[in-house]
Amino acid sequence: MTTATIKQGISYVTNNRGKQTAVVFDLKNKAVKELMEDFMDTLDAIDSLNDSTTRKSLEDVRKILLASK
């Protein structure tokens, strides 16, 4: 995957003043699709870090796993 390949799959939408207002990713471009999948995975990882559910310590997980044997 090269930057040139990725850039071929990216287009900008501009307003009547020539200001870029949006971006369009060509998902038929394999390099762009892979990059966007990585980006979405990163967003999911960030969301999981901010997840407010109670997390168990490693020691608690060990105890649970050992108790189930």
Q: Mean pLDDT across all residues, rounded?
A: 91
- Cα end-to-end separation: 46 Å
Q: Rounded to an integer, what's the Rg over CA atoms?
A: 21 Å
Widest β-sheet, arrangement of strands:
1-2
Number of helical segments with 4 or more residues = 3
Structural class: alpha+beta
Structure summary, number of beta strands: 2
| SSE topology string | HEEHH
Q: Unreliable runs, pLDDT <50, ≥5 residues?
A: none
Assembly level: single chain
Helix content: 40-55%
| Major sheet description | 2 strands, antiparallel
Strand content: 15-25%
Overall 3D form = elongated
Quick structural summary:
The protein has 69 residues and is α+β, with helices and mostly antiparallel strands. It contains three helices and two strands.
Describe this entry's structure for a reader.
Helix content is 52%, strand content 16%. It is α+β, with helices and mostly antiparallel strands. A hairpin with a 5-residue loop joins strand 1 (10-14) and strand 2 (20-25). The longest helix has 20 residues, at 30-49. The protein is elongated, with a radius of gyration of 21 Å. The relative contact order is 0.12.
Descriptors:
69 residues; alpha+beta; two-stranded antiparallel ribbon; 3 helices; 52% helix
